[in-house]
Task: inverse folding
């Protein structure tokens, strides 16, 4: 996740992403199930670790993870915000999701008092699954591009220039607090999430990065390494600092760190944006050599079933 959900379905045509960015990913493209499972497993590993930190801070019932048959549900009654902390990954990667499974997942979130968001590749929806989503009042509210960068095929170095007044630090202490604050504020998260993000500095595999413009905090991002894989997320730039190369610098430093750690794969996801309002994280990742592998729809329950 690199951008808040901001891309409703009507604004994203099947050819828009490829035409605007050069990335070959659209609703009509053949879906790559093997690669998708690899990329979403990497994302799940990062979020599972994030939830473990949240559980250690606030208790097991505040951040719950349920897995089965390649599907992982992340449930947080404490945060409650859907699309980030209340979501399901891995749906429809091997085959179209079963209607009964979608209903069961929605009920699991309802019992926890949370509104679910299902992450689903649109080509993997069959008629039964689509009807189940409609019955659950779940509508596709956003579209994300899932991206990858293979470091075993080429160097992490892209030659992008960084302004002399722009610096990126691996954040610790007060710098970590500043980085966590930027991420939480830009993504509209409560103080609970700020505490979880700040605690990541002491966790194996996690790195928080702080970008400074003229010595002042300007942006931040996370990365998580696990074996030969790295996941990028939560890239955020303060509004007053946008358009000055902050996200590009964060991408470059994170890629160099992943390469130094022996990673051969980096994955990430971000909103596709619109022609009128392109997503800056997507543009930055593509400029840094990432490939948009497939699109993933976010289906959000508009009115929880059983409530007025």
Result:
């Amino acid at each position: 996740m690199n951008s808040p959900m901001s891309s409703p379905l009507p604004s994203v045509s099947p050819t828009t992403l490829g035409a605007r960015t050069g990335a070959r990913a659209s609703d009509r493209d053949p879906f790559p199930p093997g690669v998708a499972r690899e990329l979403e497993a990497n994302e799940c590993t990062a979020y599972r670790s994030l939830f473990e930190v949240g559980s250690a801070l606030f208790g097991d019932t505040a951040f719950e993870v349920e897995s089965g048959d390649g599907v992982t549900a992340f449930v947080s009654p404490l945060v409650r915000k859907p699309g980030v902390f209340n979501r399901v990954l891995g749906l429809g990667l091997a085959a179209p999701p079963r209607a009964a499974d979608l209903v069961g997942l929605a009920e699991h979130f309802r019992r926890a008092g949370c509104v679910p968001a299902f992450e689903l590749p649109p080509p993997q929806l069959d008629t039964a699954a689509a009807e189940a989503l409609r019955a659950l009042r779940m509508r596709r509210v956003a579209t994300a591009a899932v991206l990858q960068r293979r470091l075993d095929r080429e160097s992490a170095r892209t030659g992008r220039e960084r302004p002399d007044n722009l610096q990126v630090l691996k954040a610790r202490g007060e710098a970590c607090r500043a980085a966590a604050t930027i991420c939480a504020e830009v993504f509209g998260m409560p103080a609970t999430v700020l505490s979880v993000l700040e605690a990541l500095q002491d966790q194996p595999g996690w790195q928080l990065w702080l970008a400074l413009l003229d010595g002042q905090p300007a942006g931040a991002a996370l990365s998580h390494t696990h074996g030969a894989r790295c996941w990028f997320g939560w890239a955020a730039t303060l509004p007053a600092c946008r358009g000055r190369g902050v996200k590009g610098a964060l991408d470059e430093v994170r890629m160099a760190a992943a390469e130094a750690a022996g990673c051969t794969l980096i994955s990430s996801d971000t909103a596709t944006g619109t022609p009128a309002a392109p997503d800056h994280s997507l543009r930055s990742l593509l400029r840094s050599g990432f490939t948009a592998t497939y699109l993933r729809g976010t289906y959000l329950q508009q009115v929880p079933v059983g409530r007025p």
Notes: The chain has eight helices and eleven strands. The first helix runs from residue 16 to 21. Residues 29 and 294 are 8 Å apart (CA to CA).
